[in-house]
Amino acid sequence: MKFTLLGTGTSTGVPSIGCDCETCTSDDPRDKRLRVSVLVEHDGQTVLIDTSSDFRQQALRQGLRHLDAVLITHCHADHIFGLDDIRPLNFRHGALGVYANERAWRDIRHIFQYIFEPTHYGGGLPQVVAHTVVASAPFDLSPDFHVTPLEVIHGRLPVVAYRINDFAYATDLSKIPPETLEQLRGLDVLVLDCLRVKPHPTHLYLETALAYVEELRPRRTFLTHIAHDFKHERDSALLPAGVQFGYDGMVIEG
User: Cα 160 to chain center, whole Å?
Assistant: First the structure.
């Protein structure tokens, strides 16, 4: 199994517009963070988690030519606004299966009404086959590509984390419910939300992220959804063994 972090930044991206802080002016490419998404390749399948608002740029940089499915965590702008950019893949390979929970589909159908209720002709429309996921109800994308949607809480919003075999992706969360914690044990790789050092009402921050790592004890943890408060080289010293800051383009073999 292969995971490529296409984006590891918070909703504003890093650098942030108009900011001249040490991270935003850094020359380290690991401090250049597009909005979060990850590409998962396994058992002949190529699956994207979230069509971030930087998806076009990410796909071009990755040389992406095909997708088998898209998994959506939730419908905030930085995670979904790249949905229209699946069209070139549709042109070549037809409609694409998109998986999201009922709440996300309600918002997606509202934001992208033109996809589901087209009112004009001319130009291409994204072609999606909608699948509704339910927390703790697993499904298979291939014989050895097992997906379990799991509920985590982002402030007050239920968000979908995904466990794929022994890999889990849990971004945009402030709390992991007890039943989800039990389903996140025994992981090889955990990609986990960690916005900044200071507390935040809707995201994990350093102390809370590391507390979950200590409880779950995955073999390897990579932090994502990172704001400009963290500078990669400077702040890596804050992390214990087995935990790293993710960075755009990082490839994780599982």
Answer: 10
Closest CA to 71 of 63, 61, 62, 83: 83
Token pair in block for residue 239: 């992390």
Token pair in block for residue 93? 């390979």
Do residues 35 and 7 touch, judged by C-beta distance below 8 A? yes
Name residues whose C-beta falls within 8 Å of residue 234's C-beta, 6 or more positions apart in sequence: 22
Question: What's the pLDDT tens digit per position in 92-128?
Answer: 999 999 999 999 999 999 999 999 988 876 678 999 9
- Give the separation between CA 155 and CA 223, rounded to whole angstroms: 19
- Please give the Cα distance from 148 to 80 (Å, whole number): 20
Contact 31, 235 (CB under 8 A): no
Question: Residue 131 CB: number of other CB atoms within 10 A?
Answer: 15
Q: What is the pLDDT of residues 137-180, one digit of tens each?
A: 999 999 999 999 999 999 999 999 999 999 999 999 999 999 99
Going by their DSSP bridges, the two strands 96-100 and 243-245 should be labelled as: unpaired
- Which of these, 104, 159, 171, 158, lies nearest to 131 by C-alpha position? 104
Instruction: Spell out the domain ranges in the chain.
Output: 2-253
Task: Kindly report the CATH number that applies to the domain delimited by 2-253.
Answer: 3.60.15.10
Instruction: Count CB neighbours of 42 within 10 A.
Output: 19
Q: What is the pTM (predicted TM-score) of this model?
A: 0.97
